[in-house]
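Problem 12. The chain below contains 161 residues. Write out its predicted structure in token notation.
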Amino acid sequence: MQYSACQNVIAASLVHERSQLNAFDRCCRVIDTKVSALDTNGGLYVSELIDVHKGGPARHLHHEQEEWFYVLEGEYIIEVGDERYELGPGDSVLAPRKVAHVWAHVGDGRGRLIATVQPAGQIEAFFDALAKLGSSPKREELRRAFSSHGMELVGPPLSIE
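Solution.
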């Protein structure tokens, strides 16, 4: 499955098959599913996040899942709780359940990041819900999407200079 994200919000049709990456210039993030929750009976979700512009999602937390990040290409800042990490290729960090976290691609050029969610929970349904919201959802719509899928929206995206 692939999800394209414009303005840091998922905005693409979802298909249940793996295919070649097809990012458009106007998009800033593609989420390419590598291991679906369907493949693991809900035990694990693995994706490759491909960023062509700087930025990232809003600060959030998962009530029942850990999220692990591994940088393949580019430069990222990831904050987990009160800790701030500047990561490059080969670096990784874990965001434990119930701990707020946020990340942003901050380097020039393309960034690639492996993100895993364990257990998978409702992450793919969450991406589906975001896709239906379109490219400019209201904050309350985002809050509802997060909360109805076992997560909590707790702050804005990282400020990127």
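Discussion. Residues 46 and 116 are 4 Å apart (CA to CA). Students who got a different answer should revisit the alignment rule from Section 12.3.
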